[in-house]
């Protein structure tokens, strides 16, 4: 037995969703200890939505068998299991209250990448929208960003294809299992993404692309990114939902404006008009709007001796105190000579202690 097995087993218990599992692990210290707990102890778990009537002996035995089969299938399919609260789990997503307890991935990605941007839009993209997406992704790639989208028709697949053409890292978030790529026409691209970037899903390997999966998928697209760019969107639909999630998570949202008579500009115009997104007048404006001082590659090249481990938390505080105004993540990385993943980890610890706060645009400020 192992901790991963118990976490998967809990998710096979009727009435135990991600929120309940995270509450159990937080309260008992591990999924295994929670599994051993009595019904009375489980009932006292704070913030848990676990339905106790699903905890029969038969359900538990079945759940363990299914979890073992799940693990075995993932291992044979080169699928990594990413558990909430571990270093492999996407850093920004972990700060969202409704983050999944478990994710599954194929390929490689940096969970603390300093520049992750989701590029999304309608499945029925116009020629203008496709061209805008290509320009946006080209600029993002020049600044070292990792580009996230949903592998769907239209804007999403254009973003993935352009990212691979530019040699940029790209991540596809699926509304189905990793062994059941949807849409099927994009399986070739999915294989390429798994080789050069990553495929991620919170669903079982063979899960079908059920309709209700996609709003769920969209919260991951919003939550794991520093910013979301909406290229074209109708008044309703997935892109609009993702943008609303991004606002709820306090992410930067940029939208490409369009003519009043263009149906797939309606969503973008509405986001802008309701102050839910900033206007993106041209791809060249992205670095300014997101507070990027220079391409990420340049920073890395200028700091060949950058530390593999963060300096003391006190030193980071001192650097922030020297600057009376909020400091951008990139500037703080340069000033402290710390690589992005290590700095992210240190800032996360400082934020948990209530000493700093994150601001829009990847800025950090001391709590006064």
Task: Write a structural description.
- The longest helix is centred in the N-terminal third of the chain and has 20 residues, at 57-76.
- The chain is built from 17 helices and twelve strands.
- α8 (155-166) links the parallel β4 (146-149) and β5.
- The strands form two sheets. It has a nine-stranded mixed β-sheet with strand order 1-2-6-5-4-3-7-8-9, sandwiched between helices.
- The protein has helices spanning 3-11, 18-28, 31-36, 39-43, 57-76, 91-94, 127-142, 155-166, 187-196, 213-223, 238-248, 266-273, 286-290, 296-302, 313-322, 329-336, 340-352; strands at 80-83, 102-107, 116-120, 146-149, 170-173, 198-201, 227-230, 252-255, 278-279, 327-328, 356-359, 363-366.
- The protein is globular.
- The chain has three domains: 3-76; 107-290, Rossmann fold (3-Layer(aba) Sandwich), CATH 3.40.50; 296-366, Arc Repressor Mutant, subunit A (Orthogonal Bundle).
- Helix content is 45%, strand content 13%.
- α1 (3-11) crosses α5 (57-76).
- Residues 298-311 have low confidence and may be disordered.
- The protein is α/β, with parallel strands linked by helices.
**How many helical stretches?**
17
CATH topology of the largest domain: Rossmann fold
Give the number of DSSP strands: 12
The helicity comes to 40-55%
Number of domains: 3
Under the CATH scheme, the architecture of the largest domain is: 3-Layer(aba) Sandwich
SSE string: HHHHHEHEEHEHEHEHEHEHEHHHEHHEE
Radius of gyration: 21 Å
The major sheet is characterized as: 9 strands, mixed
User: How far from one another are the termini?
Assistant: 47 Å
Shape: globular
Estimated structural class: alpha/beta
Query: What is the percentage of strand-forming residues?
Result: 5-15%
Spatially, the strands of the biggest sheet line up as: 1-2-6-5-4-3-7-8-9
- For the record, the CATH class of the largest domain is Alpha Beta
Catalogue the unreliable spans: 298-311
Question: Could you tell me the mean pLDDT?
Answer: 87
């Amino acid at each position: 037995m192992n901790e991963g097995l118990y976490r998967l087993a809990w998710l096979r218990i009727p009435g135990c969703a991600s929120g309940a599992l995270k509450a159990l692990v937080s309260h008992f210290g591990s999924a295994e200890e929670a599994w051993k707990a009595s019904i009375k102890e489980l009932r006292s778990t704070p913030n848990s939505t676990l339905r106790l009537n699903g905890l029969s002996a038969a359900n538990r035995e079945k759940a363990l068998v299914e979890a073992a089969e799940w693990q075995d299938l993932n291992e044979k399919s080169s699928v990594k299991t990413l558990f909430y609260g571990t270093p492999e789990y996407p850093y920004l997503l972990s700060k969202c209250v409704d983050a999944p307890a478990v994710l599954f991935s194929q390929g490689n990605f940096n969970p603390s990448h300093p520049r992750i941007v989701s590029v999304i839009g309608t499945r029925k993209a116009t020629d203008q929208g496709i061209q805008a997406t290509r320009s946006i992704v080209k600029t993002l790639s020049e600044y070292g960003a990792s580009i996230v989208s949903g592998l769907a028709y239209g804007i999403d697949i254009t973003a993935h294809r352009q990212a691979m053409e530019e040699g940029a890292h790209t991540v596809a978030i699926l509304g189905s299992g990793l062994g059941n790529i949807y849409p099927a026409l994009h399986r070739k691209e999915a294989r390429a993404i798994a080789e050069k970037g990553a495929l991620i899903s919170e669903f079982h390997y063979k899960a079908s692309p059920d309709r209700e999966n996609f709003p769920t998928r969209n919260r991951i697209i919003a939550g794991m990114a520093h910013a979301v760019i909406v290229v074209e969107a109708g008044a309703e639909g997935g892109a609009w939902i993702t943008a609303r999630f991004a606002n709820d998570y306090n992410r930067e949202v940029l939208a490409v404006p369009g003519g009043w008579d263009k149906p797939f500009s309606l969503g973008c115009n509405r986001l802008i008009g309701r102050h839910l997104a900033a206007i993106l007048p041209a791809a060249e404006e992205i670095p300014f709007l997101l507070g990027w001082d220079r391409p990420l590659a340049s920073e890395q090249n200028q700091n060949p001796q950058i530390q593999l481990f963060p300096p003391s938390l006190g030193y980071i505080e001192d650097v922030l105190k020297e600057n009376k105004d909020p400091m951008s993540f990139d500037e703080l990385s340069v000033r402290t000579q710390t690589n992005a993943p290590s700095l992210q980890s240190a800032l996360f610890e400082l934020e948990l202690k209530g000493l700093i706060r994150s601001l829009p645009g990847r800025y950090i400020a001391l709590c006064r």
